[in-house]
What we know:
- By secondary structure, this protein is of the alpha/beta class.
- The protein has 2 domains: 4-151 and 363-377, Rossmann fold; 157-361, Rossmann fold (3-Layer(aba) Sandwich), CATH 3.40.50.2000.
- Helices cover 42% and strands 18% of the residues.
- The strands form 2 sheets. It has an 8-stranded mixed beta sheet with strand order 3-4-2-1-5-6-8-7, covered by helices on one side. A 6-stranded mixed beta sheet has the order 11-12-10-9-13-14.
- Helix 1 links the parallel strand 1 and strand 2 (35-40).
- The longest helix has 17 residues, at 16-32.
- The chain is globular and about 70 Å long.
- The model has no long low-confidence stretch (mean pLDDT 95).
- Pfam families: EarP.
Amino acid sequence: xxxxxxxxxxxxxxxxxxxxxxxxxxxxxxxxxxxxxxxxxxxxxxxxxxxxxxxxxxxxxxxxxxxxxxxxxxxxxxxxxxxxxxxxxxxxxxxxxxxxxxxxxxxxxxxxxxxxxxxxxxxxxxxxxxxxxxxxxxxxxxxxxxxxxxxxxxxxxxxxxxxxxxxxxxxxxxxxxxxxxxxxxxxxxxxxxxxxxxxxxxxxxxxxxxxxxxxxxxxxxxxxxxxxxxxxxxxxxxxxxxxxxxxxxxxxxxxxxxxxxxxxxxxxxxxxxxxxxxxxxxxxxxxxxxxxxxxxxxxxxxxxxxxxxxxxxxxxxxxxxxxxxxxxxxxxxxxxxxxxxxxxxxxxxxxxxxxxxxxxxxxxxxxxxxxxxxxxxx
Length: 378
């Protein structure tokens, strides 16, 4: 019989949590032949990522994964799975935990943590935490180093990406399907971020620069900042405008597979949170990360920990340029001079982005690491 896996996801205020767990659930089912249930407390958010899903259906199957509504007033009587993943510190229903403790066959309980490159991650990855009911909960940390749980990456993803990037016609057809007409000689940039006061200074230098820029902005929170700079009323999907060398177009909210291809199509990707951040790295192109802001500046420690890893192998000048740009973007600083400095090292940044991608891909991916952890635990 297939091993059964339950993944619990509580949607907070963005699509990162459900984005990661939906990708993981699909991969566990498709590549490892597991019976996977994904419990989601907000089907509306899930339907944005999986448009064919039914927002009113408490149970449904999508891409070989059983999608279950996780109600606030849990009344479910279900047999706990062999492996239970508590994603991003969400709290499992008390009745479900009691059923886990009473199950004759033991359950592997995993707390899937947020992604971090901080030094302490390797030391905490895989550690158990004894619970008062006799169960053990293990901490599982995704990460960028061999001592962590790895990153989400489907089999064949990089081969698909390379084939797509080598086929200019495929790229142009994909963009046209989104309503985008590729501009000859333009530097293509995708922008997916939270609200950001630093955006205006970046757009100013893009508009005044020597090269034509095509900025593609998927529907999202950054639109309010873009509207402020443009001095325009509410932007709508499909809206396009030009300021100097800068051509801006608002794209619809797209599926995860489409978003991957958008990242592959662009020369530079500004991304946010966790899911799009990882996918931009698999695109093998230079990127800019808008990390989710936390109290007391804890997010900046995570940002700097990642930069410390990512910068390895770059020249001193390229390291400084990259760090200054990321710091300005995440601290509402002036972006103009930082962007100009980065362009001076542009060829090096391109080569480095691909090399970083290949080095991370040499490690076990997150789904594979989770399955192996379960097999070792058995």
